[in-house]
What we know:
The chain is of the alpha/beta class. The chain folds into two domains: 2-65 and 229-252, no CATH class; 79-213, 3-Layer(aba) Sandwich (Rossmann fold), CATH 3.40.50.620. It has helices at 2-12, 14-30, 34-53, 56-65, 89-95, 105-116, 139-149, 166-177, 194-203, 230-252, and strands at residues 79-83, 121-125, 157-160, 185-190, 209-213. Strands 3-2-1-4-5 form a five-stranded parallel β-sheet, sandwiched between helices. Helix 3 crosses helix 10 and helix 4 (56-65) packs across helix 10. The longest helix has 23 residues, at 230-252. The two termini are 28 Å apart.
Amino acid sequence: xxxxxxxxxxxxxxxxxxxxxxxxxxxxxxxxxxxxxxxxxxxxxxxxxxxxxxxxxxxxxxxxxxxxxxxxxxxxxxxxxxxxxxxxxxxxxxxxxxxxxxxxxxxxxxxxxxxxxxxxxxxxxxxxxxxxxxxxxxxxxxxxxxxxxxxxxxxxxxxxxxxxxxxxxxxxxxxxxxxxxxxxxxxxxxxxxxxxxxxxxxxxxxxxxxxxxxxxxxxxxxxxxxxxxxxxxxxxxxxxxxxxxxxxxxxxxxxxxxxxxxx
Length: 263
């Protein structure tokens, strides 16, 4: 299931699909299938307008990010779970530096929460989730180094380094934490990823308090406003498609019981 999801996810990303369709159109035209080649090229132009120029990707992404409210938690809690996805394990290993990606705010949010709530447990959930290249360094290991660099006491940090996707995050976190009924656990992940994460944690019976961070949209995008650039539009569409397809895939495969969780 993990490998299939990775492969399907690559081909259904709007930017990848558009590029592959453009290549197909060129090949068809070269081999004298000009009508089919023209149809493919016309479809590419249409898809670029829809996903690259219009605000459709931002709207789809903003819908995900607005599903759960902006985080606010002022009372003590038992602990927080940081999901993998905020670091680049390959660059970290090759360059011998701890490297974040666009979701790095997950790391800084946990560091800030750790300062405000010094008694809270810190659990990092994330193994190595690549299928084309072996990388023994886990996402949790890199995140741990970054948190220590930001002043978090290493003794507070617990890790699970087995999970490869969001539902495995939930399963392995449950096994590690063994939460009690009276405990409060925060789940820290990107706002666009929170619906899928909540669905997975709900499926294993782990009650969490959503703490979304790493917002990419204002949440008030107009349908009539174009994206800042084709690259920005495609990036938003890719991220939104990844999450929406993930939600649908988990639900249809029976891994989750709610296709679009609500607060």
